[in-house]
Amino acid sequence: MQHLKYFTYSLLFAALMWLGWTPRPFFFTLLIAFVPLLILEDELRRKNKSAWWILFYNYLAFLFWNLFCTWWVGNTYYGTQDISSVIAGLFANIANPLLMSIPIFLYLRTKRKLGWKMGLISLPLYWMCLEWLHLNWDLAWPWLNLGNGLAQYPQVIQWYEYTGTFGGSLWIWLCNILIYYFFFNTNCETKKIRKWIYTSCIIFIPMVISFVISVFYTEYKDSDSPGKNIVVVQPNIDPYNTKFDFSTLGDQLDELLKLSAEKADANTDYIVWPETAIPQGIWLNEIDSNKIILKIRNFLRAYPNAKLITGISAFKYYEAQPTVTARRFSDGSGYYDAFNSAIQLDSTSKYQLYHKSKLVVGVESVPYPAIFHYLEPILVKFGGISVSLGSQKNRSVFFADDSTGIAPVICFESVFGEYCNEYVQRGANFIFIMTNDGWWGNSAGHIQHEHYASLRAIETRRCIARSANTGTSCFINSRGDISDEITYWKPAVIKKWLPVLTEETFYVKHGDYIAHIALILSALIYISTFFFKKKPEAE
Asked: Rounded CA gap, 14 and 19, in Å?
């Protein structure tokens, strides 16, 4: 019966995280979700249970959380047996809870060596180190970083322009630890009135600050501020049964052009198409003679002020191997890189390119391809990529003749806050997100992805135009408010005037400084555990 009780603690944690995560409306449950796990750890320790039991029930809790919130990662839409997606989904939902257990292991050691107070201080620091890792290594999966859980309510997190999502992660942990410390920890003897005051302050002060910022923040001072007219297209082409059937390529292009013409006019400044809107690979060495590119340029002659920004699949030829992702032709005639790219076109021969650099593991890349490139044939057998896609080191901003800058953010990249900062630092005035969320079916996945874009708007104070092939296309203002949403699984086009914004936020200038501080403090705390003897449980 005791193990059933402990299992219930794990399940309660997962249920509270699920209730608080987008698209569920109860974000406040995130502020208490970890309390059951802290109570569980306390009870197991008092019964002299091994630390492995604590880690086991924490792993179960994290496993349920992952399954409840991101089960759709391995979705086989319409029954299509895309084995690589299933494997990627299983790996993400089984391996990620193991990684989430590492901060708990470090916390248990710190608590044993340095005492329970220092243990509680170290726990959010260790957790944020894991979140930083998920943003910066080749096995990146930051989808469940705690700060993302508040994305559905931008009015609560306007202070992200100063802290980024790590501010949200820290807030969630502080609320959980404070509630546990004051109300469930038998070592705490703080008077009742002080408990309520301290807890109320840590919960409500950030929310009050956010509301104040929201009231006084304006995107622009008057209606005469410079702006751009932007058209966003959602073609809704089935990614499994149609999009990569190249016999339909002409029809797909005609649909994109037809939808664009419904809203474009002489005042249109930008037309945005989704990720891999041109799915058949375009050889960049021959781009000026490509029939698809020529047809688009011919279309744009009717809109002389407009620039079209779209996702494309691209290839580049080399005589010698310049990158670790470049592959040799079977006949030995040279090398090539494959890219998931964005391109800016107009009616002239000019174009600008960006190659997606935050690639989806197993679907678009093998982690650390210089070392593990031999795994690519295995992935191919399971329906994955034939080669790891190429990427580029720095962000490329697409500039117009008037110096207006566009950040071409492709799909998964929109989940990375500090990564998107570089676009703004390099002169981006808008963020255009091009994505294809139909792989997950009509699940929570495309809704979460859409709302995560609101975080980037708040952090950078840039307006966003979001074009999804299948998913949800929309506009997002610099307060993170979503508007003009296109219904899921519906071809449509939307148009909006958006202001040109130029100021850089504190977060854009300083990035994930909270995580960097957490890395330093975590290292110091953990190193100190090797130089102290075990402390008594009570202090």
From this structure: 9
User: Is the pTM here over 0.70, yes or no?
Assistant: yes
- Residue pLDDT, tens place only, 398-434: 999 999 999 999 999 999 999 999 999 999 999 999 9
Helices 165-183 and 192-216, interaxial angle, to 10°?
Answer: 160
For residue 305, the domain's CATH number is: 3.60.110.10
234 in the same domain as 111: no
3 state SS of 492: strand
Output the furthest CA–CA distance in the chain (Å, rounded).
79
Please choose, from the candidates 397, 395, 398, 427, the residue with its C-alpha nearest in 3D space to the C-alpha of residue 501. Answer: 427
Domain range enclosing 467: 228-312+343-357+392-500
351 and 398 together in one domain: yes
Task: Give the chain's domain count.
Answer: 2
Confirm whether 326 is domain-assigned: no
Residues 514 and 506: their CA atoms lie apart, in Å, by: 12
Query: Do β-strands 474-476 and 482-483 pair in parallel, antiparallel, or remain unpaired?
Result: antiparallel
CA 366 from centre of chain: 19
CA dist list (Å): 304 to 286, 307, 344: 24, 8, 14
**Residue whose pair of structure tokens reads 């969320």 in the numeric block:** 437
Same structural domain for residues 80 and 154?
yes
